[in-house]
Amino acid sequence: MPKFLIKYDREGCIGAAACAAVSDKWKIVEDGKADLLGSKQDEAGWFVLDITEEELQKEIEAAKACPALVIHVKDENGNSLAP
Ligand code: SF4
User: Each residue of 11-21: pLDDT tens digit?
Assistant: First the structure.
């Protein structure tokens, strides 16, 4: 059971690339938006990726750096940790 997860609303990404500057889990691709590497899309269209406690701090930074506020970091109980 993962302790933390990232939820990403890719549709709202404006391609600012702040996430990719902070964490190597993020990569700007052909359409100018960021991909969350290794993530899976859920029924609601969110891209979701489980992360470890060791990876948490960088992803919180990425979420806070995103000007579009489309990156969300949550704990295992669904509590929001960032932004
Ligand atoms: S920082 Fe936010 S808006 Fe910018 S590329 Fe990353 S996800 Fe998209």
Answer: 999 999 999 99
Is residue 6 in contact with ligand 1, taking CB distance under 6 Å?
no
Classify burial at 64, counting beta carbons within 10 Å of its beta carbon; exposed 0-12, middle 13-18, buried 19 or more: middle
Which tens digits make up the pLDDT trace of 36-69? 999 999 999 999 999 999 999 999 999 999 999 9
Q: Is 19 in the pocket of ligand 1 (CB under 6 A)?
A: yes
Domain boundaries, the chain: 4-32+47-82
What's the CATH architecture for 4-32+47-82? 2-Layer Sandwich (3.30)
Q: Is 71 in the pocket of ligand 1 (CB under 6 A)?
A: yes
Neighbours of 72 (CB within 10 A): 19
